[in-house]
Amino acid sequence: MNKQEFLRELTSLKKKYEVSAINPGSFECSGCNQCTGCMFCSDCKGCYKCTHSVKCTQCAHTSHSKGCTYCHNCSYCNESDNCSGSAYLDFCSNCTDCTYCFGCVGLGKEDFCILNERYDRDEYFKITKDLKRALGIR
User: Fold this and answer.
1) I need a surface site. Which of 19, 86, 91, 108 has the fewest CB within 10 A?
2) Residues 48 and 86 placed together within one structural domain of the fold
3) Are residues 65 and 83 in the same domain?
4) In which domain, by residue range, is 102 found?
5) Alpha-carbon span 127 to 102, nearest angstrom
């Protein structure tokens, strides 16, 4: 096999995989594509060992998350991307080891923040409740 034959075959394999609905090692997933070792997920793509997640893409070890992309080891996150080790994030990007953040970007080890500003717990929940209603979510 020469270089050209190898590259042609490799390109063919990649194209076949891109359109496949294969989900090796996954259990009770529906509408997922190319997910591995996931359970009870729906409409996800390219995820690894996620549970109870919906419409996530390229996430790993996430649970109970929705609409996330490139998140790792996150739980109960919504519409967030590139976050890791975090929980209860909504509309966040590039946050690490954070909990209860809404619309935050680039934070690390923060809690109860909205648009990168810290709030006390009670105020956080009051403001986010109003924000969610205004945004038409939950």
Assistant:
1) 19
2) no
3) no
4) 77-138
5) 10
